[in-house]
Amino acid sequence: MTLNRNNIxxxxxxxxxxxxxxxxxxxxxxxxxxxxxxPYGLDACVSLPxxxxxxxxxxxxxxxxVFDVERGKRIAFARAENDAYFNAVSILxxxxxxxxxxxxxxxxxxxxxxxxxxxxxxxxxxxxxSTHPFYKSEVFEIKFGYTNGKPNWDEDEDDTLEK
Length: 163
Description:
Number of strands: 6
CATH class of the domain at 9-97: Alpha Beta
CATH topology of the domain at 9-97: Double Stranded RNA Binding Domain
CATH architecture of the domain at 9-97: 2-Layer Sandwich
Oligomer: single chain
Helix content: 25-40%
């Protein structure tokens, strides 16, 4: 199966599965690791705190059952996989919240940019259209930039920009 770059996938490391068997207590515990594969760019714009996910699973023999190590391993393994999926969702939920903050900032900037663009459109009219109610009959030189390595905001200094 090829990975669609729009999907998120967990790939389990089947070679790095650890089982702990306690025959006296009739408990089998499994620890499994998975790699979380995310779409291109998601990990670039949102910080994912961990790309490797860990899962724990335990199987305990019931009082009426006969202890079977292999059956316990299968149950513990399945529970460990489930735990890894839940841990991956927790990681992604945190990243999703960070992404929402970024999306909100982009939306706010878009509103601000539109407001500035509308203001500048009106300002251009006030500079060029003599019938505009705020027509600027006198236009002063724009003072910005650097002169001799210093900001030239002072009126007393030379206003020419160093080239």
